[in-house]
Amino acid sequence: MQNAIIGEETKAAPLVPKLERQRLHDTVVDHLRNLIVEAVLTPGTKLNERELCETLGISRTPLREALKVLAAEGLIEISPNRGASVSKMSETEIWETFELMSGLEAMSGELACDRITPVELAEIKALHYAMLACKAQNDLPGYYSRNQAIHDKINDAARNSVLRQTYLTLNRRLQALRFKSNFQPHKWDSAAHDHDEMVKALEARDGKRLATVLRQHLLDKRDAVLSAAALPAESPPEPQA
C-alpha cells in the first residue's frame, strides 16, 4: 500500500480509494492521519505531492491544506527545500511525551469518576465490548479506533476544557506509537486487561484506582515502544546535545 502512495513503480492501480469531494478538506486530513497512525506512511517517509494527488484523486490545493494541518499537529514536517515528510520522534521525545500523557490520562480518569454520566458510562462499556470483539478477530485497526474512543470519552467526561485541549494536542503526536505498541500479542493482551480494569474502576467511581491504571497503562505503552526500537526502558534516554 505504501508503494502506491510514495513509490515510483506502482502508478497503475492505487490501493486506496479516491476521496469524495464533499467535505474534502476534513476527509483528506483524516485519511492521511490514519495512514500515518496505522504505519502505512512510516516516520521519515518523504511525501510525494504529485503521487498522493493521483492516488487520492484530488488536486494539490486540498492536499497542501491538509499537510499544513498535519504539520500543526506535529505529524509531518514541512521544509521549504525538502518538502513534506512524516515526523519522527526522538527517543527523548517519546519518553517525555508518554510520561506527560500518563499524567493527563490519570487526571482525566480521576475527574471522570466524579463527573461521568450513566449514559457516558454505558457508551464506554459498549465500546469496550466492541473493542474486545475486534481483538478476538485480530482486527487491530478496529480495536485501536474503539480503544482511542474509550480514552477520549474518559477525557471528555472529566469536564475540564483546558485538560481537554492539552490532551487532544498531545495525543495526536502519540497516536501512531500507541497503535504500534499493540503489535506484540502479549502487549496487546496486557492492554486489553488494563481496559477491563478501567471499566471496573469507572463503574465503582473509584478515581484513585482508575488514575493508577491509566498512568501505568501509558507508561507500559511507552516501554513497549522503546523496547520495540531496541531502546532501554529502565531509565529515560540521555538528553540530546
Describe this structure in words.
The protein has 241 residues and is mainly alpha-helical. The chain has two domains: 2-86, Winged helix-like DNA-binding domain superfamily/Winged helix DNA-binding domain (Arc Repressor Mutant, subunit A, Orthogonal Bundle); 91-228, Four Helix Bundle (Hemerythrin (Met), subunit A) (Up-down Bundle). The protein has ten helices and three strands; from the N terminus they run ααβααββαααααα. The chain has a three-stranded antiparallel beta sheet. Strand 2 (76-79) and strand 3 form a beta hairpin. The radius of gyration is 19 Å and the shape is globular. The model is unreliable at 1-15 and 231-237 (pLDDT under 50).
In the CATH hierarchy, the architecture of the largest domain is Up-down Bundle
Measured as a percent range, the helix fraction is: 55-70%
Going across the major beta sheet, what is the strand order? 1-3-2
Q: How large is the radius of gyration?
A: 19 Å
* Tally of contiguous helical segments: 10
Strand content: under 5%
Q: Kindly state the mean pLDDT as a whole number? A: 86
The total tally of domains equals: 2
- Strand pairing plus helix content: what structural class? mainly alpha
Overall 3D shape: globular
Number of E-state strands: 3
Order of helical and strand elements: HHEHHEEHHHHHH
Low-confidence stretches: 1-15, 231-237
